[in-house]
Write a structure and sequence with these properties.
This protein has 16 helices and 5 strands. By secondary structure, the protein is α/β, with parallel strands linked by helices. The chain has 3 domains: 140 residues, Rossmann fold (3-Layer(aba) Sandwich), CATH 3.40.50.300; 61 residues, Helicase, Ruva Protein, domain 3 (Orthogonal Bundle); 97 residues, Zinc Finger, Delta Prime, domain 3 (Up-down Bundle), CATH 1.20.272. Strands 2-3-4-1-5 form a 5-stranded parallel beta sheet. α9 packs parallel to α11, α10 crosses α11 and α15 packs antiparallel against α16. The longest helix is centred in the C-terminal third of the chain and has 33 residues. The relative contact order is 0.09. Bound molecules: adenosine-5'-diphosphate and magnesium ion (MG). Adenosine-5'-diphosphate binds next to α1, α3 and α10.
Length: 348
């Protein structure tokens, strides 16, 4: 995984850069999705007086990118000297927080008028409570010269006193359309061949995470050349959605043998129970069927997911899931057949 710590990176030939970095938006306006949040950031970048901020939300939605864009826009040429970026791979114990930030806050840097130095703490929710307490004090002491931007997945993991000193900006998963749009832009610029099934597969496996989508796209392009669903699924090592769709179609038809054959094939290919259950859920959620059938499917998949997490992930347990998925349709079929037979005998 590549983190955003590229402030000091040497320039590389463009072709060797990971797409994540190569196509990381430079300006706030290039960030896709989360329109309200991004608009607020745009205003901060324009007006210049950046408050302390917390950016919270799922991975790969542009939190680190947003902070980098805002700080670059605020600080212009002074950016390199006036930003301190600490991410989870740096040591961020109490002493480091005190000393490095203190040293940075006291450093003299020529800034554009009315601007502040910026400390970026990426993945701040992985900092210990002790380090966060130290940070809170440091934030106060240096508030005249230095502003803080904390990115995290879950804002609850940031201690309350820090939360109350910050403006909280929330990010949500990107929509499939937003991921698609960005992917298309990148694929065109890279002149990578793709087909629609490949795009669908990238979006399916990314689940609203742009980092995932771009990484998988680059891995597929590097490994296979063309982006097709087959190739993407091989790279991502996930069960093929078409097979899972077949399984669900068979189940909705009450056809245990048909459904189980598909499952057995996936099992033979070496997929673990957790992969199959997770992917089945995502397929079932968007499957075209009656509301009632969908609820029945998801209920059983959810219960099976719990069992798998408890360690019951054998072939037999998964076969039982397939049986349970087939059961409602099989029952309905039998009831319909019985009703038809009854009607026929009444008619005689
Ligand atoms: N909203 C977005 N718009 C455009 N690209 C994005 C967006 N979110 C993520 N990316 C891409 O994914 C990469 C990782 O994004 P990042 O900002 O580090 O995510 P995180 O939210 O996990 O901090 C970026 O380099 C960028 O290429
Ligand atoms: Mg990040």
């Amino acid at each position: 995984m590549f983190s955003g710590g590229d402030a000091g990176a040497e320039a590389q030939p463009p072709s060797e850069l990971p797409w994540l970095e190569k196509y990381r938006p430079i300006e706030v306006k290039d960030i896709v999705g989360n329109e309200e949040t991004v608009a607020r950031l745009g205003i901060i970048a324009q007006e210049g007086n950046m408050p302390n901020i917390i950016l919270s939300g799922p991975p790969g939605t542009g939190k680190t990118t947003s902070v980098l864009c805002v700080s670059r826009q605020l600080l212009g040429a002074a950016w390199r000297d006036a930003v301190l970026e600490l991410n989870a791979s740096d040591d961020r114990g109490i002493d480091v927080v005190r000393n490095r930030i203190k040293g940075f806050a006291q450093k003299k840097v020529t800034l554009p008028p009315g601007r502040h130095k910026i400390v970026i703490l990426d993945e701040a929710d992985s900092m210990t409570t002790g380090a966060q307490q130290a940070l809170r004090r440091t934030m106060e002491i240096h508030s005249g010269t230095t502003r803080f931007a904390l990115a995290c997945n879950i804002s609850n993991k940031i201690i309350e006193p820090i939360q109350s000193r910050c403006a909280v900006l929330r990010y949500t998963k990107l929509s499939d359309e937003q991921v698609l749009k960005r992917l298309l832009t990148v694929l065109k610029l890279e002149a990578t061949p793709y087909d629609d099934s490949g795009l669908d597969a990238l979006i399916f496996t990314a689940e609203g995470d742009m980092r995932q989508a771009l990484n998988n796209a680059q891995a597929t392009a590097a490994g296979f050349g063309k982006i097709t669903s087959e190739n993407v699924m091989k790279v991502c090592d996930q069960p093929h959605p078409l097979l899972l769709k077949q399984l669900i179609d068979a189940a909705l038809d009450g056809d245990f043998d048909g459904a189980h054959n598909v499952f057995a094939q996936l099992w033979d290919e070496g997929y673990a129970a957790i992969d199959v259950v997770g992917s089945l859920f995502r397929i079932a959620k968007y499957h075209e069927c009656t509301e009632e059938s969908k609820l029945e499917l998801i209920r059983e998949i959810g219960l099976c997911h719990m069992r798998v997490l408890e360690g019951l992930d054998s072939f037999l347990q998964m076969s039982a899931l397939v049986a349970l998925l087939c059961l409602p349709a099989a029952k309905r079929k039998r009831a319909a057949a019985a009703a038809a037979a009854a009607a026929q005998s009444r008619g005689k």
